[in-house]
């Protein structure tokens, strides 16, 4: 006798979503049989033959052995023309050029920083790829190299863009006023697959909270900063940009930040892809129902919230 | 938070495995330039003298079982850590640990050539027994085998008690069949979970997409 | 920990290509092991075994002590082994490397857990006094396959060892001096022989007794310990250990076991002859006195 039960690190992450009886019927109705078949045939697991190697090109998540293309991860098979790939439902972030990421400095090295971006390798941020005080186009000096810790030090969070990527390695840059050190908020971590590429990864929610959806699954939730303040004066204010001190945050904003973070965590726990629309809906629902910030994380409240934002058909 | 985790119960034996990585290698000495380094850690407390060796051997067995199955060459200079924690022990520990490690690696989305299915087999007179308890393990000649179900090949085989040569062959064949059963069970669990996640992601997307979220479909490459 | 320097890529290619052609670098056949050499010391229970340039010294000693309270009728048998930096620069003193752990554990399984030594025969006075037998292994040089060499040395030393005779009169234990009464050998249940096979991804056939270079390059290794190897008995597996590495089919494994049985039979016969020869030599020297 044996039984195999995969467990999530936190609670019942993969437990089946229970629905309210009245909704369950709708959910069941919504899934017709064809859809069901389609799904299960698209899902594969390691060691399973996908097709013959002569017919297709193998992409990520597959390997060739003898005549066949075989899956090496579990996920959904996707085909683009002849290219077959299997995308793992859960995996580390693999950087692509142009991605916006939120990272954490783990090491200050010779004229570069090492940044944890939830990838298989730490990303690199060169001293030449950051804006320095005293004008954007200023030359890098030796003195800058000696005081790198004044800009970023170990543990600092930053938002940056992937400048170059290859083989799991990435190099970042923060040469825009939108990028740079983060403060006035808190970090929420979700699986990278849940963050989709949108027109913009920067969002301002109506509740007075700013959101940066890093493509690597790190999400920065912070106090709203007005557009005019954000851009600041022409001359680039070093004090402000590399400051380690939080602004004054009133209690209402603090509550809103925590609420948004918790909403993000609960949605991620139920594998709901994150967009500003969904977050907004979820936030409104929480306010409407009068659920306290801490209670969002509890099973029942969280589940009803997820249900209300996902299962409602348009 | 772990990148992947699984817990496996075979009767009263219960094992939990967590996987971290692939991530930046923490120690330069063990970094390999052309492949990821695999490290296995068994979180058992050593109470008895001479137990340290047994635990290290246990971890080394798991490590060398998974090294050729994992596609480590995809992650040069990285590191993958496997942590095994025995929660409850009633025999067949290696079997449970191997099965749990397979599931945890799959959960972490790390490419594997195939599942690895562990199974123990003992012989009572001429009657073979599968999936042993502590009591059976201590009294009977037994073998622990790890099988790759796709090819039916054996990657680990460990026999520590005396057994006639002819009997051994018979037991290997039996474990091959038993591993197939375990494989079906494991694939079922993995697919059910993947299906659940994919559904959750799709349903949210469907309702969200209808209300005008841009660019989501392009990402899926459909 | 200093890591073993990997052999250069060209050398690796050379060795592997040669193996594919069924040629081994040291000129042996694929299934030909190195001929071991045993040197018996003047003292009983001291044996040095050499397998090519791999050399291991085994030493058996016995003391009288109290038994474990839960096993009043049993003596103890312990194995002490440490691979010192003398064997190879990759081993560090006082620190367990993975390889060392595996060799030590394997020796424990082959010699101790398989009950090669009859522990009940080591009891002198139940609950009071028993023989405590200690096997110490010194690894002198590592030129591949230290396990087989150590196992051979250990088994030979156990067979070679003689303990003084003891007599129990009432509650009193009399230990007879070896010059007074001939010392007696240990009671050994069986004599296990260990055979190591190595596998390479590209070549079809396994090789027996890999040397140092081959063990660096191999993709998988198989340790088989066998006993009851005389031609009249059917061979019995004592330990079978394949810890991961390249996967094999059940047929390949059966084939390997057959290869191991053949080699173990040869070694076993040779070992018996050697031990007997040494003993005969000793008898002669006593007669001269």
From TrEMBL, chain A:
Residues 96-175 form the S1 motif domain. One of its GO terms (biological process) is nuclear mRNA surveillance. It is found in: Nucleus. Belongs to the RRP4 family. CDD domains: KH-I_Rrp4_eukar (cd22525), S1_Rrp4 (cd05789). InterPro entries: Exosome_cplx_N_dom (IPR025721), Exosome_RNA_bind1/RRP40/RRP4 (IPR026699), KH_dom_type_1 (IPR004088), KH_dom_type_1_sf (IPR036612), NA-bd_OB-fold (IPR012340), S1_domain (IPR003029), S1_RRP4 (IPR048565). One of its GO terms (cellular component) is nuclear exosome (RNase complex). One of its GO terms (molecular function) is RNA binding. Keywords: Exosome, Nucleus, RNA-binding, rRNA processing. PANTHER family: EXOSOME COMPLEX COMPONENT RRP4, PNAS-3 RELATED. This is S1 motif domain-containing protein. Pfam families: ECR1_N, KH_6, S1_RRP4.
UniProtKB/TrEMBL annotation, chain B:
One of its GO terms (biological process) is rRNA catabolic process. InterPro entries: ExoRNase_PH_dom1 (IPR001247), ExoRNase_PH_dom2 (IPR015847), ExoRNase_PH_dom2_sf (IPR036345), PNPase/RNase_PH_dom_sf (IPR027408), Ribosomal_Su5_D2-typ_SF (IPR020568), RNase_PH (IPR050080). Residues 2-111, 114-174 form the Exoribonuclease phosphorolytic domain. It holds the Pfam family RNase_PH. GO terms for molecular function: RNA binding. One of its GO terms (cellular component) is nucleolus. Belongs to the RNase PH family. This is Exosome complex component RRP41. The lineage of its organism: Eukaryota, Fungi, Dikarya, Basidiomycota, Agaricomycotina.
Automatic annotation (TrEMBL), chain C:
GO terms for biological process: exonucleolytic trimming to generate mature 3'-end of 5.8S rRNA from tricistronic rRNA transcript (SSU-rRNA, 5.8S rRNA, LSU-rRNA); nuclear mRNA surveillance; nuclear polyadenylation-dependent rRNA catabolic process; rRNA catabolic process; TRAMP-dependent tRNA surveillance pathway; U1 snRNA 3'-end processing; U4 snRNA 3'-end processing; U5 snRNA 3'-end processing. It is found in: Cytoplasm; Nucleus. Keywords: Cytoplasm, Nucleus, RNA-binding. The keyword Transcription does not apply. Pfam families: RNase_PH, RNase_PH_C. GO terms for molecular function: mRNA 3'-UTR AU-rich region binding. Signal peptide: none annotated. The keyword tRNA processing does not apply. CDD domains: RNase_PH_RRP45. Residues 43-164, 190-262 form the Exoribonuclease phosphorolytic domain. Coiled coil: none annotated. One of its GO terms (cellular component) is nuclear exosome (RNase complex). Belongs to the RNase PH family. PANTHER family: EXOSOME COMPLEX COMPONENT RRP45, EXOSOME COMPLEX EXONUCLEASE RIBOSOMAL RNA PROCESSING PROTEIN. This is Exosome complex component RRP45.
